[in-house]
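May I ask you to comment on the folded chain given beneath this request?
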Amino acid sequence: MEAVAVDNGGLILLIFLAFLFAWGLNRVRRRLRFGPMAYTGVMLTFMVVILAVYTQTFR
C-alpha cells in the first residue's frame, strides 16, 4: 500500500469555507427565522458534504 500524505492546504481551505458558510448561514437564518433544528440540520448536511469532498481527494 502507498502512504497518502495529508494535504494541509486543502484542509485549511475547507475549514475556512466551513466558517464562511456558518457565518453566511447565520445571517440567512436571522432573515428567514430558522429554528434551531433547521439550523442544525443544514450544518450537519454541510459537514457531511465537506467530509465527502475532502475524502475524495485521497483517491
The chain has two helices and no strands.
